[in-house]
Amino acid sequence: MSNQTKPIPAVAPEERLNFKKILPVFVIVLIDLLGLTVIIPLMPLYATSFGANALVIGLLGAAYPVMQFIGAPLLGRLSDRYGRKPVLVISQIGTFLGFLLLGFANSLWLLFAARIIDGLSGANISTAQAVITDNTSEKTRTQGLGLLGAAFGLGFVIGPIIAFVSLAASGNDYRVPAFVAAGFSLLSVLLTWFWLEESLPAEQRGESSRKAAFSISAMLEALRHPTVGLLLALMFFQQIAFGGFEQLLALFTLNRLGLNASGNAIIFVFVGILVVAVQGGFIGPWSRKLGDRRLIYLGLAALAIGLTLTALTPRQPLPSYSRAALQAELSASGDFRTHENPTTRHLAVELPPDDHKGWLGLVWILVAMVPASIGGGVLQPSINSLITKRIERSEVGGMLGISAAFLSGANAIAPLLGGAIFQALGSTAPFLLAGLLMAALLVAALIYIRPGKEEAQPAGLARGAEGH
């Protein structure tokens, strides 16, 4: 009889994710992101129609993450003070207005105004993370945050498809996707208002009201935090590596494999599916078995391997490749390469020669995408989950806001830094250096991220930590 009772703890409520409470957040974030991802592929061309050059397009591309960098800690602190739901609703209304302004824009400065408004409003991801934290236990938090990451992955797969359909239906009227994005944003406002339950009780609000909503000194103070400072640094540097990987991959495959927009789309969809699978399915069992600390080790190791393998991709175009045909496609009058990041589109990229064609290069990079996607998929949710377990509950929203600010800062820096290295040292250098950075961070994490109180409380994790 005693043997029959052993499986009971495995299905205890605190070990199972409450999907009823998490589902509204997942759907709301996904719909909110569809608005953003419908717009992302079109922004460079939209700006070009107003006479913007490459430098101005780069600044426009940086406006959104810079505003997120400022807005995320602000909204995180406000959600600690006034509750999660009102902050989400107000920020989503701001996003809706930003998309409307984008659709009605008749000058370049209005595009900048729209992206600035949307960037500040789009910083509400830290508030969504706080809702997940409020509705999960320590054992299910990584899985919950992973589902939020899966919403991101789905958004970046579905959004460009919606953009393509709306352009085809409107005869390439670039205002139409902006209004479609506004429609998704309005839907997210309604879902948040009518479906989402407030997750922060009134008696727990305002406990950190004396703290500033955002300042550079607050971020520096967070870095000096004895239990989460290194985790915040890891969040920043892993996104420098993975964000640069995402932004430069199209240029890299153009140089190494001669892939055009369609070929790169296949790779990006493959990466998106992998990230969705990891964050939507695998990360829950992995986090319960390994714990957040070991999952961070796994993510750093996988990302180091994936980035290094990517850098070593053989320069071999597909059998159907024609250098002359690709040159004609890329230089065609009025043909804008929307698969390239606006901060890197001005780089001169050498196309591969017509000799030595084959399948090895494509197969190699698809294999490299597996560990790269696993690493990129597990790191953010596992780092954020461990952060929430090593701070006071009243600080969750604010600290996740600071984490999101580091993430946004990395997103603003990564394409600029990676593009400069790409131009100066060649296409393989950004990926190889990023792989070495991840390997160095793995060593630092193994040395300095020690078992914490979260491993002493759950019996399963405590037993697993005995050997470390």
What features would you describe in this structure?
- It is a single chain.
- This protein has 19 helices and no strands.
- With 468 residues, it is mainly alpha-helical.
- The protein has one domain: Up-down Bundle (Growth Hormone, Chain: A), CATH 1.20.1250.20.
- α8 packs antiparallel against α12 and α11 packs antiparallel against α15.
- It is globular, with a radius of gyration of 22 Å.
What is the element layout, followed by pairings?
Layout: H1 2-5, H2 19-39, H3 43-48, H4 54-82, H5 84-104, H6 108-122, H7 125-134, H8 141-170, H9 175-194, H10 216-223, H11 229-257, H12 261-290, H13 292-311, H14 323-330, H15 360-389, H16 396-425, H17 429-448, H18 453-456, H19 459-464
Jot down its keywords.
disordered C terminus, 468 residues, mainly alpha, Growth Hormone, Chain: A, single chain
